[in-house]
Queue: 4 jobs
Job 1
Amino acid sequence: MAISNNNTENIENGLDFQPRFNADGLITAISQEADTGEILMVAFMNQQALDETIKTGNAVFYSRSRKKLWRKGEQSGHFQKVLDILVDCDQDCLILKVEVDQGQCHVGYKSCFYRTLDKNDPKKLRFNAEKVYDPKEAYGK
Amino acid sequence: MAISNNNTENIENGLDFQPRFNADGLITAISQEADTGEILMVAFMNQQALDETIKTGNAVFYSRSRKKLWRKGEQSGHFQKVLDILVDCDQDCLILKVEVDQGQCHVGYKSCFYRTLDKNDPKKLRFNAEKVYDPKEAYGK
């Protein structure tokens, strides 16, 4: 999204929090484990999800597929306790520094990023982690 | 984006790399410093940017504002050497594990995420880093 010059200085160098939601009213939010730096997941927030995250201290996203607030952990029990929220230069992306228990990804891994591109064949992936819980038990699938 | 049930198992648990570009032909890419875990920036790639990143080993993005490939470092000299590429469960987001020199953000900081929400006033930010280079020199502004 283009930023007018008048606002750029304030958005980039200022200390007012001015989250820039996209045309769908969403902002990208990355959950990163605070003590290890591991990126756990990437999702979206709308204004309400952001407000509730700040108010409750637990990560709340907006589910584009279900079109409603997604209170992470509500169903699985795997909450994300938010210690800090960082914002990037143009204020269209957030990092949530979180504390978690174990599995965060609905597939059963701690992080959603459990696969790495194969350097010998970039059409293929390799697993870089092992499942830490059984999603069938957590989600009753 | 909704995924049909037929494909979900393969996308989530398979080892075929099937990057899922959005309606604009873009996929989210997070640059993360490999040795520290620090998140440096979040941007987008189109298919061409991804192919060129894999081929050259240097991060290439797609600039939505300039509507063209953005070979990171071409102008500033701050390249990102890509050591690994990770993909998330639904294959609509990538992590680039990178090696960098110093300043990566065009504002002058190493990371774009140089501000943190103030816990006492969530409308305000505080700086969490100091500038590491002068963007006026790097970009000739």
Note: Residues 18-139 of chain B form a domain with the Ubiquitin-like (UB roll) fold (CATH 3.10.20.810).
Job 2
Amino acid sequence: MYGIFNYDIASPRMGVKVGEYILDLELVSLLGYFGDLNIDPAVFAQPVLNDFIALGKPVWQAVNQHIKALLSDEQAALADIHDQVFIHQSRATMHLPVRIGDYTDFYAGIHHAENVGRMFRPDAEPLLPNYRHLPVAYHGRASSIVVSETPVRRPQGQFMQNGQVTFGPSQALDFELELGLIIGKSNPLGKPIPIDEAEDYIFGITLFNDWSARDIQRWEYQPLGPFLGKNFSSSMSAWVVPLDELEPFRVEGPVQEPAPLPYLQSSKPGHFDIQLEAILQTKQGTEHRICQTNAKHLYWSFAQLIAHHTVGGCNLKIGDVLATGTISGTAPDSFGSLLELSWNGTQPLALADGSRRTFLEDGDSITLRGLAVDDEFGLRVELGDVSGKVLSALQRFS
Amino acid sequence: MYGIFNYDIASPRMGVKVGEYILDLELVSLLGYFGDLNIDPAVFAQPVLNDFIALGKPVWQAVNQHIKALLSDEQAALADIHDQVFIHQSRATMHLPVRIGDYTDFYAGIHHAENVGRMFRPDAEPLLPNYRHLPVAYHGRASSIVVSETPVRRPQGQFMQNGQVTFGPSQALDFELELGLIIGKSNPLGKPIPIDEAEDYIFGITLFNDWSARDIQRWEYQPLGPFLGKNFSSSMSAWVVPLDELEPFRVEGPVQEPAPLPYLQSSKPGHFDIQLEAILQTKQGTEHRICQTNAKHLYWSFAQLIAHHTVGGCNLKIGDVLATGTISGTAPDSFGSLLELSWNGTQPLALADGSRRTFLEDGDSITLRGLAVDDEFGLRVELGDVSGKVLSALQRFS
């Protein structure tokens, strides 16, 4: 998986994560180890992946194969320069891997949508009538997306408390376990992307935490959707896994009934079997796995998200992020947000250290992890973690 | 007012609109007419205004004053180079004036919000409970914002027709008359902008048409807000008027009752008396003024929009666009959208050429105009028009 890092006095550059180390691709390239790939080494010395991504899918694939060959035990091609090009992660500072143009957040996790419906519209059908016809989504805020390990400040804002409009630090700060798709190819404005080409527009995937202030969101979101309840920060992994790496884990998604309109019908399975989990670390340092779920629980596939996003002509650009929305399973310990895990605060989550959580406390950290494994073939693809610690709210405003 | 243009073989550069002409600021600067302002001429030779804006408000003001002096009759300073530096608009191609990071669309027009409430929730209070407490907004799509005169293709999409989920060209394509604020200064993530500093973060304003497909929007927007109903295109004027130019037109806004929370209370009036109108030109070329309204009808001031947007810590960046939402007055001919003018299609608008409109037809053009005038002091500030013509939908998808 690819990321942007710097170390010592070196400027930001592109790297590949290899266990505890990062392979410095600018150095590898400058030292001539990319042979006849004919890529300008400058492309590996950028502060974001965008220029590399813009070289196109055949180049991503060639570079990916070449790096795998360099890393394979048999060749030990990099043995002579090992100490030079492998940087221990402890020496590195990670950066946001892409310059993000626009960020879209979907609502593709059907069990999450059902849970939210059950909580907020208890007397109605959990899913709204449009849910199974189109991937519901809203535009999010790109400027406030931060790289993993950036602390997240608890937002202040307006919410209703005891029937009064109140201003103060959010009392219902939450995480959302999501995947983010990094767009790898642009489509011109006005030209929809057909679903069977849609995956060619994905460079790779990351873990994504769409922090949410549920009280702010609840008060503000009618009729135009979430705004300040979401835009104070979203956290993205520093590492992007090429979609190709996940090919062995492709699976059928859930049966879609009613059948979606033709522009959302794909000729191949579009889901991926990726185990996901959320770890809550308290201020005291104890760690608690509070959620275990899987990307295959999403209702809509990645390809469907892209086909829908562009069917009216909207243009995607390289580096854009499409997040899936919260991924929950059906079991109570598979819910991807505290809103669901504590059932809107009514059923506090008991942690093993004896403490309880409805929503996040100052000093809590959330880490999301992802892993695809196929024991039969000995395959294992880890996603890059995303973590973030909650800082207490500013006190300047009232 | 400032814009980006090119002509003949010249690359895009910054210009000032002077009647039918554009003053080429790169040339003026290279020829030494910016005297001791000490600005790198390269800043005027960029394809967007962002680098100029980044120089900061004191520089905007100095350049603005200097250009006014150069243009004043008394000095005729540019007489010797007049033919060189004044380019007739007919020779120029205009470009999107800023590189937009994020685009936010507010709902600050209270009469618009009331009209929408009356149409869609006829048995309830027209305004939702949050409306007078906070400026409702949603994040929009930045990638599909186009400069004035770019044609706009009618989107295809899903909507309900006779109780059936249908796919096809939108049957309810609309315009929205809005103002766009161009952000002139960035705030760090996590640092709210106090309301009395908020106007310092505005570089200037433009006319903005947030094209909307009402049928697509209506089917998709619950529960997360508008998405494909809005993101197929928004049109922005090629010209940005510095906020300072509007200072003589500052007025008190409507009484805000209940009083907003302290972070939304300003020490000075924050509204501007700007006459606005929308012209519909049919395919046959006849022009019809279908709306006359005024920016002073907005409920929330520009400063309130910025203070609210950032109160939870969201960071604004230079070049971001904050649009006001549709600006309607109270009179039926002051409504800033066809949704309101035709009362959701139930009262077709009769045009002077005998034709009628519920929503836009292929070949229709919409032009938005703005003008601030003070006859007593002989002041007159025109905003840059924004116009766009509707193209028929693609026929490839079904």
Note: DSSP finds eight helices and 27 strands in chain B.
Job 3
Amino acid sequence: MIMIDRKTAVNVEWKGRNRMKETRWAIVGTGYIANEFAKGMQEAAAAELVAVVSRSEENGKTFAQRYGCNTVYTELAEMLRNARPDIVYIAIPNDCHFSYIMTVLEAGIPVLSEKPMVDNRRQLDAVLAKAREKDVFLMEGMWTRCFPAVRQARSWIAEGKIGKPLTVKSGFDIKPDVSDWQPWKGGISHAGGALRDVGIYALAMAQMVFPESPKEAHATMKSNGEVDESFHMLATYTDGRAAFLSGAFNQVSTPVTEIVGELGRILIGPEFWHPTTAELVMNDGTRQTFEKAYPASGFQYEIEAIQECLEKGEKECPYFTLTDTEIIADWIETTRKEWGIVYKADSE
Amino acid sequence: MIMIDRKTAVNVEWKGRNRMKETRWAIVGTGYIANEFAKGMQEAAAAELVAVVSRSEENGKTFAQRYGCNTVYTELAEMLRNARPDIVYIAIPNDCHFSYIMTVLEAGIPVLSEKPMVDNRRQLDAVLAKAREKDVFLMEGMWTRCFPAVRQARSWIAEGKIGKPLTVKSGFDIKPDVSDWQPWKGGISHAGGALRDVGIYALAMAQMVFPESPKEAHATMKSNGEVDESFHMLATYTDGRAAFLSGAFNQVSTPVTEIVGELGRILIGPEFWHPTTAELVMNDGTRQTFEKAYPASGFQYEIEAIQECLEKGEKECPYFTLTDTEIIADWIETTRKEWGIVYKADSE
């Protein structure tokens, strides 16, 4: 453990506005997503960052200091023993999730892991069994499901506003600076790829609307020589329902998710994976807009949703359950194996 | 032939603004599309409506009078003999196109036929052979290709503005009043269906960008008991290129076509099948907008493009060639047969 001088911990005082009891979070990882998460934590009510775990002491210190935390560990097990956080958030490369999740669950401590939570069904079965055995909370970090605009869209669907949902169109197609952006850097060695790193969001939009597994999924993939650089997928369901889904690191498409029903449609955006807006457009053209701007990254919604679960003793988040994770994980695994993409974890 | 009192032909005087030589058109059919076409003709330079053919004398008279024409026939052959138009436009139910096209071509007169031009490959081979034999102009009425906004999009692609095109997303999904709107009314007896009546526009957008036949096309279809009420299709091409295409009579989706390339994307709308706008959005977010509003239906662009062809002696329209028609017709026929949709023409 490395202690940081409290004087440098500038951001800690103004938190804990709404509740008496703070939820004590530990963050594993110090990369881009971990930073975004920590910014969200500063906006969340009653969230306290009590420990940071980084394999690099220097990175850990810089990160912890930035977010008003004074405790850094280079060993996960030591952190768990000493800090005893209420929950651990894991934001490290895909292929490292599994062993970290197992270690935290084994200690009887709840886990939020970044997507994709694990690399294959065998690992998924193991973490699900361990969470059940230890009777602790576990969630794959599909933060998108927690945004107010997405919850509004879901309510509109549940209320029958668009009638029977018929089609979902969702694409997470971006062209990042590959040298600068983490998930993509991983390639095959870190179990990366467009489907798992960004496409998973599009699949989660379809699965939110059509909660079952697709009847069939036809997909085309462009490889970067290691993993999928882009893919396009038609998922079909019974009775003509369908989803057009894509993910890409080589092209930019309009990042609005469209959910079309018999009576109208819902548009989620401007970037559907962390939206501020849900728009309900009826077939006659009349419109209704839900708008909720937010400060920082928006991770606060996921954080607050989870804290509510912990307070209530719930073991899954209702916005993105472990069943949701299972359906999407199987769908991804079937697809990538059809493409011939094999990860380290598959031969372990 | 039925002559109408010239005094009722109010719209004829103000035409023929730009050229001396009028192109003398005959229109077969008096329905919704024929009306839209005639409105476009009133906006086109040097286009004259010289004859109307309708099986109903009363409908023919009403229609002709509305557009300043004083000659109505109830028999196509009689019209061809007597009126000798420069070109015949055919806007009757799908299943009637073939025999009308053959009759007009046999008389050595050019033809513009509404989409889908014919019902299957056998009919297509026959009309193509007849047009070649008689050495006359023939075009399937994919008017969308003639709009300035679509031509601008095509120029941008040809100039390399978006780099290599990678993805096309196009859906013609509407929910018309079925009792009031003609193509849909046809059902199986008139060789109708979402794929042929509206989806064909989406396929034509893909084929404009990727001129070859798709490598594969996966599609899901919802039947109305006779034909396809809606469909969703993933068309794949070599090297990961793909198109998300749909057509529907039971749901309304955002009617903008998106063409995504390596460097940027093009949005065609607001209703891509008769657009006023093409927008070029570079990957860095910079935008360039082409806008061309037009009076009436917009058929004037197709009409003027064809008149230019006739003047130059060309036998095909460069915006939508007979090869374009062949590729899309084969694609549609393969797809509908996979769905088990069989038309009258297939057993003739």
Note: Residues 6-19 of chain B have pLDDT under 50 and may be disordered.
Job 4
Amino acid sequence: MFSAKIKVTLRKSILDPQGKAVEHSIQSMGFSSIADTRIGKFIELKIDTSSEEEARLVTDEICRKLLANPVMEDYSFDISKMNGEKN
Amino acid sequence: MFSAKIKVTLRKSILDPQGKAVEHSIQSMGFSSIADTRIGKFIELKIDTSSEEEARLVTDEICRKLLANPVMEDYSFDISKMNGEKN
């Protein structure tokens, strides 16, 4: 059993109005040192397989086909073996 | 200048209907080995300070006061020094 932690972020060239709104809120709280705030998605899932290579391939396919919009978004992920498992 | 990468996730005890919907989509694509899908937010921001300790304190305060709902959500973050900076 593996755990995948996936980050989906807007590409740098794409405007991020949600990030801008959050940045304004942060600055209005008095933190003037904050810049370049960007908001993305974080997805966690478990993959029931004994092969890390297969877990990686499955996660990549799920990101490409479902979780990320390839025109506007980039994704990255970490795969880790879950504790308490022997396979 | 430091970069903070923040993850805000629903607490384990809170139902995540968005995660369930994504999980059903993944399974209907043929990936039956996927379970426990949960969706959170990923926030990146830059902090203009020369002290890692200050960057950490500022980020923690922003998470507590603005980014995470302390009743329903947990947060974690990594602080890293940005390349090309000497301070």
Note: The CA atoms of residues 20 and 40 of chain B lie 13 Å apart.
